[in-house]
Amino acid sequence: MKRTIVTGALMAPALLFCACGTGQKEVGKNPMNIIHIMSDDHSYQTISAYGHVLGKLAPTPNLDRLASEGMLFRQAFVENSLSTPSRACLMTGLYSHQNGQRQLGKGIDTTKVFFSEILREHGYQTAVVGKWHMQCEPKGFDFYRILKGQGEYYNPTFKGSDSNGQYIKEEGYVSECITNHALEFLEGRDKDKPFCLLVHHKAPHRNWMPPVKYLDLYEDVEFPYPETFYDDYATRCDAARTQEMNIKNSITMAYDMKVVEWANQNVEIDAKSDLKKWRNAFDRLTPEQKEAWNAAYQPRNEEFIKQNLKGDELLKWKYQRYVKDYVRCIKAIDDEVGRLIAYLEKEGLMDNTVIVYTSDQGYYMGEHGWFDKRFMYEESFHTPLIIRYPGKIKGGSECSALVQNLDYAPTYLDIAGIEKPDYMEGSSLVPLLSGETPKDWREYLYYHYYDYPATHMVRRHDGVRDNRYKLIHFYGEKDQKRNAINCSELYDLRNDPNELNNLYDNPEYLETQIRLQKRLDKFRSDLNVDEY
Ligand code: SGN
Ligand code: CA
In this structure, are 183 and 299 located in the same domain? Predict the structure, then answer.
């Protein structure tokens, strides 16, 4: 029998064990270790195991290895495609409106229990390194080394569980520094205890700054344009038309594109804040790093300025620079995953450690003309997910069940032999790992995005998705910048995987629309959703 935790508030250890009853399996008798590796904004399109053309051109051998020795999830999603909400969901197993973290900068309800606290109470040694990005201190961790907010790509500062609240600057590239801290924890841990380590990479978050070793990588490759690159949003609600996350107009020339020469000449077009943001990022580099950077980008930038590109040519150039910098960052993450695996091999930890690779959400690689995330459309609603669980998963297997980031906390508790607390919304993924989907597995997912008005101006929306169809509802009052919106979209993902043909109110799909609307209403009422 497993231990059961019955309340949303953290109990004192004594109480925790009281609630467990007697005669259960002893946690700590050979439980598996857990490593949760989560990058920031990593699109499934850029992991070669997923088979997308971008992944083929910019392969990720170490992530592919995890997939070939583990399970690749084809239908993994988030419940709110944004960093802090996704992280709050990971830690609590709750939807955004239940854990308080609906928007990027608005706060977590710290009375909610984090799964790290439960694991720790049950004898796990716990650590988080890298991007934490929540409006609270790490809870339930023996060891941490966290970045400030979004963190910095070069020579980043970290606050440690032992640094008295101080952030300390380190020399190096962020993905490498994060792995160093993961190894620091693994080296120094109590080897008699199982561990749960969260490795949260900052890359490939905007502004996509690659490490020095990869500044030239893929320079001669022309990455193909996605089918929906020129989406005109013809059948959609206004939300898609009024976003500010398109490559054409929202990408900035200095901070995002790293063409400071262009930005310098066009200050009135290119807001000064763009230059300032670039300088903040670039001034962190050491003289040697700057020299390498300038040697790589200056000749390319000069050539670009000379060409004086306009219209579609300029748009395509921006896309190429964006994708190249992005996949250069991915290559470095892949290396760092390889370095972590090499350590686990050396230490004989590969057989008793579950390794999970995921992202805090998906990302647009030019689909619909976009970068960033937030929308419930496939590229950002999806998140990559690979699990390597020796002894449980047959290597090279795939799972197509609908899973969500709500499921991580219950899964990690399950791996430790602890039953999911009643209040957690997600379900353990362990039953899926045999390759069979249990008959009573969920058939619908609920999604809710709240961060408006905010950067990128994506309207609030919620929605429901099953294996084939998706219903989205955009809502919101009129404000100084946008009209009121109350508008729905329906997609048939089998016939229209690119979500170009909104079928809402199409008589042929009325039955499906009614079924999904009912399910959406049920989610809203069962979960006590308070706005939509
Ligand atoms: C920053 C980025 C945005 C991004 C948000 C959220 N702008 O504000 O492009 O959408 O973070 O990203 S930047 O100019 O500061 O890079 S998230 O991954 O943290 O959710
Ligand atoms: Ca993110």
Answer: no
